Structure prediction request, 173 residues.
Amino acid sequence: MIVEYLHAAEQRGQPSDHRPEPAPITEIPDPIIDCDFCSAPEAAWIYRCANQITDARRVTAQVFAVGDYQSRHHAARVRRTDTEHAFTQAWGEGWSACAGCADFIEARDLYGLIGRVVEALPAKLTRGKHLMHTRGQLHERYSDVFDTLVPGRGRIAPGHPLGIWTHPTGEAP
Prediction:
């Protein structure tokens, strides 16, 4: 299995000027930590959940009924879709959040968070039929995050990119 890494910017369809070199964030001096939800700069909080992994698939073939295709003027329904594994995204256990996204996470407002994230996405992902698909993907991914959130959160601070953690009661872990 070949493992390839992408910069967060590349994941969002933006260019990067160098190849990613994965390293623990604690080994990077003065790391740039964007919100893992809406991509806003300067994330404020870290949340922990179960390890999130997404397997993406690519369409290899679609089968249509010929008569259906002709009678519907080239707009027939797909009878069968064949797919194959394309890539696996490893999202990890730690999710950084800006103050705005953290408000929705703390309120456990999944749809509010999805709405906020959609507003920050490029138009190519939210125009027309793409909006429903994008919202569905976000719902699937963030539902798993919400369902497995560990109590508490870590405050990102200089020298503490993994957060300074307290229990919900305010006591140190």
Summary: Confidence is low (pLDDT under 50) at residues 169-173. The radius of gyration is 20 Å.
